TrEMBL record:
<keyword id="KW-0175">Coiled coil</keyword>
<dbReference type="GO" id="GO:0006431">
    <property type="term" value="P:methionyl-tRNA aminoacylation"/>
</dbReference>
<keyword id="KW-0067">ATP-binding</keyword>
<keyword id="KW-0963">Cytoplasm</keyword>
<dbReference type="InterPro" id="IPR000738">
    <property type="entry name" value="WHEP-TRS_dom"/>
</dbReference>
<feature type="region of interest" description="Disordered">
    <location>
        <begin position="700"/>
        <end position="731"/>
    </location>
</feature>
<protein>
    <recommendedName>
        <fullName>methionine--tRNA ligase</fullName>
        <ecNumber>6.1.1.10</ecNumber>
    </recommendedName>
</protein>
<dbReference type="InterPro" id="IPR014729">
    <property type="entry name" value="Rossmann-like_a/b/a_fold"/>
</dbReference>
<keyword id="KW-0547">Nucleotide-binding</keyword>
<dbReference type="InterPro" id="IPR023458">
    <property type="entry name" value="Met-tRNA_ligase_1"/>
</dbReference>
<dbReference type="InterPro" id="IPR014758">
    <property type="entry name" value="Met-tRNA_synth"/>
</dbReference>
<dbReference type="InterPro" id="IPR001412">
    <property type="entry name" value="aa-tRNA-synth_I_CS"/>
</dbReference>
<comment type="similarity">
    <text>Belongs to the class-I aminoacyl-tRNA synthetase family.</text>
</comment>
<dbReference type="InterPro" id="IPR041872">
    <property type="entry name" value="Anticodon_Met"/>
</dbReference>
<feature type="compositionally biased region" description="Basic and acidic residues">
    <location>
        <begin position="700"/>
        <end position="716"/>
    </location>
</feature>
<dbReference type="InterPro" id="IPR033911">
    <property type="entry name" value="MetRS_core"/>
</dbReference>
<keyword id="KW-0030">Aminoacyl-tRNA synthetase</keyword>
Length: 770
């Protein structure tokens, strides 16, 4: 397991290690700084990153992971590899009714339940190499202190109002019952087992007081209605300033269009007061006299988890959270969480009349679906974090796949076929191939030592960036490569600064593709080495240094792989080779000339200063080359689909199909049925923009299917007695094989078109979310 931070290869420079001593080159690692605590420094780029706190009572699935923690991790790693002061905070959200009821079901205390699931969450993220600076939890004294402080300030400033609510009270248990603690008959469909918050049969959202014949879930006795006093947040009174703040923040922090849209729709509807308190035990006590036995609403205190978890990381937490002038806050979450971060939490902070670090950039994702349906824990469908490790595929491959499919504009779909195709076709054939081919050649022909710089090719050793004098003057493969690398680096940093992670990853992959093309254009082989040594030497110097660049640009996405690349290069982890002009706010760089029809993205791209240089110097000796990725057999697609398809419990499959485990496996379903379902899933893969060719093929498949169906029917009727009406088996077989051929063609076209759609996705962003 790689450390969440880049490996420190030690500052003692081996004599065989010849690396440019430029101080902006080396990426500082956590192990370097003896004081492990990261604190903001005035006047520097201080980046505070959070991912939505996962609710504690379940195991996160792949959709949850890409939606918040993994995306935030990529940005945090990128930010560190630009030399920025970065803190990444997350933890489990543990209070509330859902935990209390689940603990009741499992027969443990809420604290025990939280302990169990907190550990589980931490293990999952560790396996995925999510590099939090601190992964904490909300059930701590710091949470109580900070949440109560904010609540009291809101009260003092007149933003809280006491109101009375009709609620159900259990005389036997002597407590008010939260909606989930009440069951009864649904007033809409008469289902007699409806929960107080929702009817499972008709889906109607309910208020417990609406249930017919309600009963207490704890003891079964009928509750009575009583008045309960609660504190309401006058969020309506704060709306004008929250709105003004949000508009400005959205501009400055370049919020995604769906982030803006969701936020605006809340303002448009008008904010309404809501209760900040609950009749529950599992929570932060309400710090108001006469409200003993009540706790703060979990959605009020959940975002307070960010500062309180930071307070458990360092006593100087206020340096991060109370200094909006020196800290930029980046928050990552799924789209369902947006309003809590752009409207409710900022309103609460504004209402304290104190200085708080508020949201700078919000990064939201849509949903990741599993194959053609939803992840479901109860039906055992889809890959949950604790099971990803059971199929023997490295965490980095999972990370790569999820990030390449990050649902940035519309929902995305997890597909085993694509998972395998991306590993074999992109990681192995593109990145892995380039790195291995170059390093093996150097090891074999040069004994692993970089040659001296050949004369007359315009190359200079680092730290000076490689330069190409003019495009017309030099069209050599060397000059072409240098130009291409610098251009791609520009796009990469601008994409990553704007948190367009998918584009960043595509650009990184484009860089290794340029590398492969470079090797082809110079014709790297034994003959080049024997007959045109100067060119061969230049090829090695540039290619090995490109690998060093790749180790930096892929680091945020695949940290174990890039640690491995650095080991094979025997070089310290490095920064992205682009001069840092600081984080430029999109609206701040107007004076730099984003006018004249040039988009802000293009303007920043033009201003970025890449510095591809020969930082691994002549005489540097590399380590031992090894393959970075493993080929995955295409046959595994069907196996994994069955394994994770809700057909058989994945634990049973992982245990090698032990009988008892198989017997315990949830829904009984035959193998045939499973295969059929998998087939259906394949069939249902929809093409958003079908071509005429596709539509025609689809029609032919339908027509041929009908022919086969009719033929089989006739065959049945004929009874096979040898009469004139008998349909010969050979005829049926012939039509069936025609059908299969058409279906295969359609499948191939579907795959081809859907792979194009993945690539085109970026460009469609604005259209689909506008
Ligand atoms: Zn109902
Ligand atoms: Zn009761």
């Amino acid at each position: 397991m790689a450390s969440p931070f880049p490996v420190s290869l030690g500052s003692e420079t081996a004599s065989s290690r010849k690396v440019s001593s430029s101080d902006i080159l080396v990426r500082h690692t956590k192990q370097d700084g003896k004081a492990a605590t990261v604190l903001p420094e005035p006047g520097h780029n201080n980046v505070l990153i959070t991912s939505a706190l996962p609710y504690v009572n379940n195991v996160p699935h792949l959709g949850n992971i890409i939606g918040s923690t993994l995306s935030a991790d990529v940005y945090a790693r990128y930010s560190r590899s630009r030399g920025r002061n970065t803190l990444y905070i997350c933890g489990t959200d543990e209070y509330g009714t859902a935990t209390e009821t689940k603990a009741l079901e499992e027969g443990v205390s809420p604290q025990q339940l939280c302990d169990k699931y907190h550990t589980l969450h931490a293990q999952v993220y560790k396996w995925f190499n999510i590099g939090f600076d601190h992964f904490g939890r909300t059930t701590t004294p710091a949470q109580t202190t900070i949440a109560q402080h904010i609540f009291v300030k809101l009260h003092e400033n007149g933003f809280l109002e006491e109101r009375s609510m009709r609620q159900l009270w259990c005389p036997k248990d002597e407590r008010f019952l939260a909606d989930r603690y009440v069951e009864g008959i649904c007033p809409k469909c008469s289902y007699d087992d409806a929960r107080g918050d929702q009817c499972d049969k008709c889906g109607q959202l309910l208020d417990a007081v609406d249930l017919i014949k309600p009963r207490c879930k704890l003891c079964g006795s009928p509750p009575e209605e009583r008045d309960s006093r609660h504190m309401f947040l006058r969020i309506d009174a704060l709306q004008p300033e929250t709105e003004a703040w949000a508009r400005q923040a959205a501009e400055k922090g370049a919020w995604s269009s769906n982030g803006r849209y969701i936020t605006e729709s809340w303002f448009k509807e008008g904010l309404r007061p809501f209760s900040l308190t609950r009749d529950l035990r599992w929570g932060v006590p309400v710090p108001v006299e006469g409200m003993e036995g009540k706790v703060l609403y979990v959605w009020f205190d959940a975002p307070i988890g960010y500062p309180s978890i930071t307070a458990n990381y360092t006593d100087s937490w206020e340096k991060w959270w109370r200094d909006p002038d020196n800290v930029r806050l980046y928050q990552f979450m799924g789209k369902d969480n947006v309003r809590f971060h752009t409207v409710i939490f900022p309103s609460c902070l504004l209402g304290t009349r104190e200085k708080w670090t508020k949201l700078h950039h919000i990064s939201t994702t849509d949903y990741l679906q599993y194959e053609s349906g939803k992840f479901s824990k109860s039906r055992n469908i889809g890959v949950f974090g604790d099971k990803a490790g059971t199929i023997g595929v490295a965490a980095d491959v999972w990370r790569y796949y999820l990030l390449a499919n990050r649902p940035e504009n519309g929902d995305a779909h997890f597909s085993w076929r694509e998972f395998i195709a991306r590993n074999n076709g992109e990681l192995l054939a593109n990145l892995g191939n380039f790195v291995n081919r170059v390093l093996r050649f150097l090891a074999k022909k040069y004994d692993g030592v970089l040659p001296p710089i050949p004369e007359g090719l315009g190359l200079t050793a680092g730290p000076e960036p490689l330069e190409v004098r003019s495009e017309d003057e030099d069209k050599s493969p060397f000059a072409t490569l240098i130009r291409q690398v610098n251009a791609q680096l520009r796009t990469y940093v601008v994409a990553m600064d704007a948190v367009r992670l998918r584009l960043g990853l595509q650009t990184a992959l484009g860089l290794s593709q340029r590398g492969n093309e470079f090797l082809s254009s110079v014709g790297l082989d034994n003959k080049l080495f024997a007959e045109r040594r100067a060119e061969c030497d230049a090829t090695m110097l540039l290619a090995v240094n490109l690998i060093y660049v790749l180790s930096a640009v892929f680091h945020p996405f695949m940290p174990e792989t890039t640690d491995d690349m650095c080991r094979q290069l025997d070089a310290p982890p490095r920064t992205v080779p682009v001069e840092d002009r600081g984080i430029v706010d999109l609206k701040d760089d107007d004076e730099d000339g984003s006018s004249g029809g040039e988009s802000s993205f293009q303007a920043r791209e033009r201003l970025a200063k890449p510095r591809f240089a020969l930082d691994l110097l002549p005489g540097h000796k590399i380590g031992t080359p090894a393959h970075l990725f493993k080929h995955i057999d295409e046959k595994m697609e069907e196996e994994w689909r069955v394994m994770f398809g809700g057909v058989q419990s994945s634990t049973a499959a992982a245990a090698g199909g032990k009988k008892e485990a198989a017997a315990a496996a949830a829904p009984p379903m035959s193998k045939n049925k499973a295969a059929k379902l998998a087939k259906e899933a394949k069939k249902q893969k929809k093409i958003a923009n079908p071509t005429p060719e596709y539509l025609e093929l689809e029609r032919q498949v339908g027509e041929q299917g009908e022919t086969v169906r009719k033929l089989k029917e006739a065959q049945k009727k004929g009874g096979g007695g040898g009469g004139d009406n008998d349909v010969k088996q050979t005829e049926v077989d012939g039509e069936v094989s025609k059908l299969l051929k058409l279906k295969n063609e359609l499948q191939a076209l579907t795959d081809q078109l859907s792979s194009l759609e993945v690539k085109d996705g970026e460009g469609q962003a604005q259209a689909s979310t506008a």
